[in-house]
Every structure is written in structure tokens, then in C-alpha cells.
Amino acid sequence: MINKKELFEHCKNMLLQRIADGEKAMLDAQEAANSEEKSSMGDKYETGRAMSQLARDMSAKQVFENKQELGFLLKLENITTTKTIVQGSIVLANDKIFYIAVGLGVINLNEISVTVLSPKAPLAQLMLGKKANDQFELNKKVFLISAIL
Q: Mind listing the pLDDT tens digit for each residue in 49-69?
């Protein structure tokens, strides 16, 4: 069985690692732009700096998005189990486990596969508000909700 606190911590650590990796990539790209030496071909220098700046900007955007996701996740830390599916719920349906929290995709925790979904994801939208023994359909496949944790 899946432990909600352990799953929350795993997701939080994944986001913290993504933020750290993104911040390192930003620094590396900035250092590359700053150390780009001007050659006899001025265009090559400018192109190299522009590419490094683009890489830095992309990393900055990813860091910003991951920080937003982390902020949202932290709001779900003390969500208690309810009879209906809400943000922060773990849903058991057919042979699948879903965690409606942030968009991390499929993760493995203690050899258990969990699909971690943003509440804005279409699949999460199909589940929100439903109760145990309710059904939802995805790609012509019917899922029966067996439990909400």
C-alpha cells in the first residue's frame, strides 16, 4: 500500500532536485556566456553568447515553474482524506494509483508506480469530485474508483 506522507515527501524532493539542477544549469550557461572569447569572427562570438543566454533563460523559466509547483505541493501537505476526490487525494482505480498534486508524471516509490497529476490535467479533471465506486472513462476504457486515500 502507498504511504501518503512518503509520496508527498518523494514528490517534494523531486521538485527540489529539479530546482537545484535548473539553478546549476543557469549558472553554467551564464559562465559560458561570460567566458565566450571574442574571435576574429565577431559573429561567432555574438552567436555563442546568444546561445548561452538562451540556455540560461530556458533554465530560469524551468526553475520558476518548478518553484511554483513546489509552492502548490506544499499547500497540500496537510490535506486529509475525504470521501470525494480533491487536490491532494490519492486515487486507486482499476490497477492504477493516481496522486492529484503536481504534474510529475509516472514515478516509482518503493516499487509502486504512481501517476502524479496536476489538478488541471484532463485526467485529474475527470476524477475530481468523484467518490469511491464511481467510474470515469478515459480513451474508451472505464475506470472504477476503488478507494480514495
A: 788 888 889 999 999 999 999
